[in-house]
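Duplicate of #3305? Posting structure anyway:
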């Protein structure tokens, strides 16, 4: 299973400030192989254009959503990928509410939507994958929305994707800890410039990552070959990619960058 990072930034990156060749992160989104999209954000077509891959999303058949913050969920992106195409959106009912608000009932009606529940988490099969929607520790202000982390398996390999969430909620952890996860993508919104930051209640800091990583290793959770990555870095809370790389190297964690492709 391949994972391509289409965007690795938090919501404070500005696409209008993009300069080709300069360090930049788009809003967080990732593509599993070429057919399962995690988070239909507003910057994914910019990624395809800049990388001269206009057909990049032609084979996307399913989309899953972590939550409906605008850096992760863009109704126009969903419409482009799903309306009149063989592509299904899977997520909380909040996704549908957002679509109806932004696009109106007629345009929303052209989008195939499947509601999924994270409480209790019910795994479902989509395409050749098994997907577990698990609660994240994050909030969109919609009291009915259940924000999510995901486990995605293809029958052989297992991926964890957790952007956005502070820590991992207990009920989700009780499921994740027993799984043979091969690659884990944790969020790292807060970097060197945001130690002891107020965002710890909804995002990870470097200190939190260090604690989690040390604990994962101490108890040998996950598959023996598990590898760790971070994504969702805030522009204003980090210095630069190289500094983050150096900080995380002793923890054996790789910071993702836009366009990075990993073999799970
Ligand atoms: Zn975000
Ligand atoms: Zn968010």
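Output from current build:
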């Amino acid at each position: 299973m391949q994972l391509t990072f289409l965007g690795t930034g938090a919501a404070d990156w500005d696409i209008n400030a993009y300069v080709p060749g300069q360090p930049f992160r788009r809003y967080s989104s990732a593509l599993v192989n070429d057919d399962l999209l995690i988070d239909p954000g507003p910057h994914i077509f910019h990624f395809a254009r800049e990388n001269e891959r206009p057909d990049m999303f032609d084979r996307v058949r399913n989309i899953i959503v972590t939550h409906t913050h605008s850096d992760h969920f863009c109704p126009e992106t969903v419409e482009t990928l799903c309306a009149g195409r063989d592509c299904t959106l899977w997520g909380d009912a909040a996704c549908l509410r957002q679509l109806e608000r932004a696009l109106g009932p007629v345009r929303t009606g052209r989008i195939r939507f499947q509601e999924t529940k994270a409480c209790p988490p019910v795994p479902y099969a989509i395409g050749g994958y098994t997907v577990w929607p698990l609660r994240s520790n994050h909030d969109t202000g919609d009291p009915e929305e259940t924000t999510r982390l995901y486990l995605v398996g293809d029958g052989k390999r297992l991926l964890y994707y957790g952007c956005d969430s502070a820590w991992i909620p207990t009920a989700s952890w009780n499921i994740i800890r027993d799984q043979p996860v091969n690659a884990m993508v944790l969020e790292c919104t807060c970097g060197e410039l945001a130690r002891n930051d107020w965002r710890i209640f909804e995002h990870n800091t470097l200190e939190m990552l260090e604690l989690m990583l040390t604990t994962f290793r101490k108890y040998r959770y996950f598959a023996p070959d598990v590898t760790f990555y971070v994504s969702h870095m805030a522009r204003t809370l980090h210095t630069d990619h190289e500094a983050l790389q150096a900080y995380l190297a002793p923890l054996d964690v790789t910071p993702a960058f836009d366009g990075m492709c990993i073999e799970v």
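Confirmed duplicate; merging threads. The longest strand covers residues 129-135. The radius of gyration is 17 Å.
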